Amino acid sequence: MLKKVYEEFGRLFGNEEQSRCFFCPGRVNIIGEHIDYNGGYVLPCAIDIGTYFVIRKNNSAQVRAYSLQFPKLGIVSFDLNDCTKQKQWTDFIKGIIQIFKINFGFDVVVGGTIPHSSGLSSSASFCAGLAYALTCIDHKTIDKTTLAKECRRVENEFMGVNCGIMDQFIVCQGRKDSAILLNCDRLEYEFIPFDLQEYGLIIANTNKIRQLTDSKYNERKRESEEILSILKQNGYLFENLCDIRDELEKYLLCIPDTTLQKRFRHIVSENVRTLQAAKALKEKDIIALGKLLTQSHFSLEKDYEVTGKELDTLVHAFLNEPDCLGARMTGAGFGGCAIAIFKKSRLNEVKEKVKAIYEKEIGYEPSFYQVSICDGVKEIEHHE
Asked: How many domains does the chain have?
């Protein structure tokens, strides 16, 4: 992909030798779903499908941007001061310019290997990658945690997605062959070796199109805020719902609405599961890890209600296969991807079986990805 991006830059803007190249990974969250905005723990990994950038200052006040994913749009040009949203991919660039206070024009070509709307964090990969590239070509330094925080501001304040910090943090701070146990409130984190031994991780994409700003994602965040507000009205002054680790039934008595009770139950139990999953990885207890993944999915399906027919079909097809240690949706839900843990010797066989079940039930095929756990955003040589 980088070769294509580099060559396209030369074709469109010329003199590619003076350009610089960057890569930002996607991510898969092993467990800890919909609790990053509740101050909980998450356990994501950076993965080697991501976004490539070739970029150069152009000595003007104009931005000229081209994406290999949207070739029909051609080169999109706009002034640095243009904040108008066009409901297209370059809206992210405008948000980055505003939040990071970019004061120079540039040419950029972008190419990605993360499927759009897959739940593998293509938006965080794009945002963090371009923001890091712009910082570097302006000869400035920025620590990766600050980079993640500012990229979250782009999503929250400019794009209108009320996401937490997890996606931005992992694509910035990722480490090869490691997961990160991250406390999303305090941004304290620990690298944990991600070694499944004789088992392998399958990532399966539902291929259902979704948009987080148009989905129930923001609704779930509002429900979480409502639960916290009710608790405070009853004298429980928690900063975040994930501050609660036990005595859940006592706090549930304060919540009269049964739907909010279910949301609350998922948030608290998922946070506990994430800590248990990190412990299981440390102890190389892959069987325990698999059970926690399955429990997570059932909680997301029944209590948080963010899965849907496509994800449930995938996960239950995995779970019905012998030797499946565990499976669950990953990402925001409402489509996107599921993950499952199987013996490496059965991965190809399982994919074919699950594909057939999914196609019969849903009407089209899922996609499967083989990934490696990689480092976070970085500058690369054009020949890499």
From this structure: 1
